[in-house]
Specification:
With 155 residues, the chain is mainly α. Helices cover 38% and strands 3% of the residues.
Length: 155
């Protein structure tokens, strides 16, 4: 049996009308702020005759029919657990690495510092002005390694 007929049977056995699907999916689309979740009557008719809807519409349809999305995907021949397996991810409930385990990164970063350097004697992080013009003329202040303009003006 094809997916469209199975969806129609699911809808009928749950007494869900096409207007219910429109109303519920409109609410989902509004909550999500995305019109792609809206499932119109004509879209439902297309799906029930064999068309394959977008993942957004499948999400809404699963909610309307009150079935898990994974179960609805199976009607279209998509097994979500197979996807996880192919991606190398563990099955839900399977024990993977715990949050407390420490993993080694794939690279190493080893900074090299000069053993003879004195952090209190360096001037790299201190401002040591050689000449300061506080007159507001926009003249540049001279620092040990470069020149900085005052007030965004170039010297």
């Amino acid at each position: 049996m094809d997916s469209g007929k199975l969806i129609r049977e699911l809808r009928e056995e749950r007494f869900v009308k096409s207007t219910d699907i429109e109303r519920i999916s409109r609410s989902i689309a509004s909550d999500k702020g995305n019109a792609d979740f809206y499932f119109s009557h004509s879209t439902l008719a297309d799906v029930e005759t064999g068309s394959v809807p977008s993942i957004h519409k499948l999400f809404s349809l699963a909610a309307c029919l009150k079935i898990p999305l994974e179960e609805l995907l199976l009607l279209f021949g998509i097994d979500a657990s197979e996807s996880r397996h192919l991606a190398g991810q563990p099955e839900p409930g399977a024990r993977g690495p715990s949050a407390t385990e420490v993993r080694e990164p794939g690279f190493r970063f080893r900074p090299s510092f000069d053993a003879g350097s004195n952090s209190h004697a360096t001037s790299l992080l201190r401002l040591n002005p050689q000449g300061v013009d506080l007159s507001g003329s926009g003249a540049a202040q001279r620092y040990r390694s470069h020149t900085l303009p005052l007030c965004g003006r170039r010297p």
